[in-house]
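Lab notebook, bench 4. The sequencing result for the construct came back, and we need a structural model before the next group meeting so we can plan mutations. Quick request posted to the team channel:

Model the 3D structure of this chain.
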Amino acid sequence: MSIQKVAVLGAGVMGSGIAAHFSNAGIPVVLLDIATPDAPDRSAIANSAVAKMLKTEPAPFMHKRNARLITTGNLEEDLDLLADCDWIVEAVIERLDIKRELYAKVDRVRKAQAVVSSNTSTIPLADLVGQMPEAFRRNFLITHFFNPPRYMRLLEVVAGTDTEPGVVTMIREFADQALGKGVVACKDTPGFIGNRIGVYWLQCAVVEALRMGITVEQADAMIARPVGIPKTGVFGLLDLVGLDLMPHILASMDTHLRPDDAFREYFETPAVIQKMIDSGYIGRKGKGGFYRLNRSAGKRVREVINLDTGEYHGLTKPKLAAVAAAKAGGLRALVSQDDTASRYAWQVLAKTLSYSASLVPEIAADIVAVDTAMKLGYNWRHGPFELIDHLGAKWFADKLEAAGMAIPDLLGKAGPGGFYRTREGRRQHLDIHGDYQDVERADGILLLADIKLDSTAVASNSAASLWDIGDGVLCFETHSKMNSIETGVLAMLGKALAIVPQSYRALVIYNEGENFSVGANLGLALYAANMAAWDDIEQMVQQGQDTYQALKYAPFPVIGAPAGLALGGGCEILLNSDALVAHSETYMGLVETGVGLIPGWGGCTQMLARWSANPRRPGGPMPPVVKVFETVSVATVAKSAVEARDYLFLRPDDEIVMNRDRVLARAKARALSMVADYQPPEPPEFRLPGPSAKAALDMAVEGFVKSGRATAYDQVVAGALATILSGGDTDVTETLSEADLLALERREFMRLIRQPQTLARIEHTMETGRPLRN
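Done. Here's the predicted structure in token form:
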């Protein structure tokens, strides 16, 4: 059986988000919630949930049209809609009696082989289905999604003693490939993996901060980026998920955990937090939390709470010796300084990591499942056992012993060798018996990180590298700061273009950073501009254009494989590739106008070529010009790969992959499929309307300026863009080449980079991360 249609029961935040993500996978969904009594719309709860999601940011839908795949209804009148569903997900309130009653109703209408799962994270599976028939139990499991379901990759799966193995396999494969999830098998224990460790970590960090007199700012500076945890840290994450949820989770843990579980040291909700909850300060969804925005006196000031007094004050960035030490000395330096902040970091890490080690095999069969769950469910860069290896397993055990803390059995077995090692090009993990086993990858997953274990780069510099990924395919990887495009990246791309024809068949452009590329290195551009090194800047613009043109017309297939942000110059690389295999969470855009510039490495030219060739565009020379102008002038960024198709950043035949771990393998396959009889694309020719089109665009922008929707300098930048897209001093009787438009791009870019307003925009963006409206 394959999964063609699903149902979600419960249209709360989680249930509706799960339904939205099924629709993102192109799957029809039935979304039901309780009937609204004495109301014209008996399905108002489900209907309003879908309407709300269409306005929510970040968006649960990858494209608004996906909402059409959701059929809404209520649990009293529409249960018959489940009759043809292959997978039914229950996401109702965490009350056992309500769930059991619902399962009995579902069992009467579901088809015999339909899978039923619960999204619970607090109720044991055995309790959920203990009273249900065997046929129901065979098709039942727990599938615990993390919030928000679109963006959080972790799916924890718990099978019961009666669950058919084939059911688990089917759900695992579907969730992996169609939903893009990292599926982790968990034991049927309280909180499974993610929340058992994650909630312990959060409670430990909060309680220890109160005990040791650590401020919110200090805690979030220590237990965040230095540890490889998102910048929200501890208190910021609690604000995000909601302080009011913690007492409920802790109460559930209290009910199900053993009396001697180490978690019990941190069960009690601190008085300051209870007072915040009672006052409505429950985080971002309330009046604020540990952090808040004070909007008094017409200003927005970010403030933070004093944990001792409960009063708020202006937020300041703490200067901590341990954080500075960690930049050079790593994690061990962070916890080895002789100050309170470092001792706090040690206490939190020592408790969290030793607790994690004590839970295997209770909560999971191996350490890989634990590390994967924390990385995908809490966005940790490294899992608990990887963090122990960063500290040194023996060093960590010795320090625990010196502190009088218990050493978990598994940690004792790790010894100097640690929890992970590499043997014969394979990553291996320590098992519960003290032996090493290969870390297994599912079929269709190819990671550059694995390739690097047993190979050296074909070529490399400080900004980029080339890797042989097998079967005659070369992979180009950027590893500059934020994968920005600089001269080293362009030089290595040029080297790739020379190497492939000699020894390889195709090129894939891919990396495993958080983002594909944030665009050109603005710091270098600003430095050169401040030095008035105009010739150097123009040379770099020329180098970028020449390199990207050589990429476009290379005698072999070039496949772009982006994920995350692909902005500015990073987007332009992709526009010059033969085809894209993009992760679904790819956010593409030409954003140069935000810093007072225009796309100068062919972005204007390539977008104009795409819209001119679009078979569904209106006739005449003006529609493509207007479409590209509308997109680029306001620095439009597509909020998903699907949305990128609307703007032609992706073409209709470009591939979208839901699971990021499968992007490289699919890109390699796409490249190999194009090798036979490959021919570079034909250069485009343009017939553009010239000054009359520019005048029309200028007039439209002037209207925006007069209405306050654009600034005076926006008008200058838009004028430069209009000059390029209209073709400059030309008319529709003349034919312009790609080189002609690239020359216009260079000219207008160099004119803008000399302007003080552009330099002010660049400097402000680099300092604040936000655009300057000057």
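The chain has a mean pLDDT of 96.
Will bring this to the meeting.
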